[in-house]
Amino acid sequence: MQNVDQYYPTSGRVILHVDMNAFYCSVHEAEDPDQYRGKATAVAGSVELRKGIIVTCSYVARRMGISTGMQVQKALRICPSLIVIKPDFHLYRKYSNAFMQIAYSYTPLLEAVSIDECYLDITGSRQFGTPMEIAETIQRRIMEELGLPCSVGIAPNKLLAKMASDLKKPNGISVLRLRDVPKILWDKPCNEMFGIGGKTAEKLRKLGIYSIGQLAAADENMLVENFGVMGSWLKRAGNGIDHGIVNPEREQSKSIGHTTTLPRDVIGLAEVRPILLNLSDQVARRLRKQGLVASGVQLTIRTPDMKTITRSRQLEAPSESGEDIYKSVCDLYVRHWNGEKPVRLLGVTLQGLIAKEDSAIQLDLFDYERQPKKESLNKTMDMLRNKFGENAVLTAGMLSDSHSARLRNHKERGTSLQKDNLLSVESDKE
């Protein structure tokens, strides 16, 4: 395994900003490429062309002079062939959830800031490769699985990650380190700094501050006198300093799901079981992270010819356990799918979510005795994964035959196996 430690700072964070390009138009193109691919398109906020405003437009339209906020009537004068599309927010949410599911599979530290962008803290994701490799993989998967272009910024903080993602559009990847700030940012006008609007930039100009470099060199006391507490932030921003953290999703979800497109078609329960176990473990972890329990589960299966079926069932009792979820989805697979047919994609979705503190979980005597140990084990596993990444702790059932054999060799050399088939995998440096 490649040693990727050299690509990570010994202290601090590694942050990605994933920004979808011309998102609404790109979604329509992905849904109907024959009608929209390579054409000037725009999504308008009103179906009335006389009053409609362009919400977003394709890059083809932008090259013709169309821009966000322009009246549709004016846009059609500039480009008579412009295709004006009525918004479909249900469709946009569907694609938004899908691209964030892909990003989430590389770190649980995901902060969605809008329908088409999110921050990722990948400091603990070394097992997936270098920051550039992770960014390239996320970008490639979003394009291959959803047909959507995106730009990715890589930086030590959220501010610079956001600035980096704007450097190369569409479909670019940019790295912006603190030492790069003077060369890349300081010549730019202040209004190109994320967080500085037109009014603030105008006020800075009146103070003789035109560029980000001049802002970085400005006297902080003077900035505080003119902008209040924001003055200190302006000084830090000019120097590329940002102490904000990536805040994972906090709002209670209506459902929690995870899907995976498989590198090859799989056939039969024996091949499906490790995949369902991985998916069940991931959704259960997200469930516990939000302090929720689920009362229902849904299995999604997609065939090589892109036909999708879903089957769902209620759990015997509300649960946060990956084991309960896994047993239920395996049962759904056996009951509703011909095991001789190939499968291209599998997904597990939890439904009927309620706060754990509001649920009345009934336990028999045996479960009652085991529950404290199971909860303690889950907390330990979650803590290790939060710190070291998704693959820091695996169950035996998740491993391929080759990986299991390698770990058996570790055991023979003295590596101990935890109870309940929990295996601590090799360190980042191996």
UniProtKB/TrEMBL annotation:
The record marks 24 as: Substrate discrimination. It catalyses: DNA(n) + a 2'-deoxyribonucleoside 5'-triphosphate = DNA(n+1) + diphosphate. Binds 2 magnesium ions per subunit. InterPro entries: DNA/RNA_pol_sf, DNA_pol_Y-fam_lit_finger_sf, DNA_pol_Y-fam_little_finger, DNA_polymerase-Y, DNApol_IV, PolY_HhH_motif, Rev_trsase/Diguanyl_cyclase, UmuC. Its EC number is 2.7.7.7. It is an enzyme of class 2 (transferase). GO terms for biological process: DNA repair; DNA-templated DNA replication; error-prone translesion synthesis; SOS response. Its main location: cytoplasm. GO terms for cellular component: cytosol. GO terms for molecular function: damaged DNA binding; DNA-directed DNA polymerase activity; magnesium ion binding. The active site is at residue 117. Poorly processive, error-prone DNA polymerase involved in untargeted mutagenesis. Copies undamaged DNA at stalled replication forks, which arise in vivo from mismatched or misaligned primer ends. These misaligned primers can be extended by PolIV. Exhibits no 3'-5' exonuclease (proofreading) activity. May be involved in translesional synthesis, in conjunction with the beta clamp from PolIII. NCBIfam families: PRK01810.1, PRK02406.1, PRK03103.1. Monomer. This is DNA polymerase IV. It comes from Paenibacillus odorifer. The lineage of its organism: Bacteria, Bacillati, Bacillota, Bacilli, Bacillales.
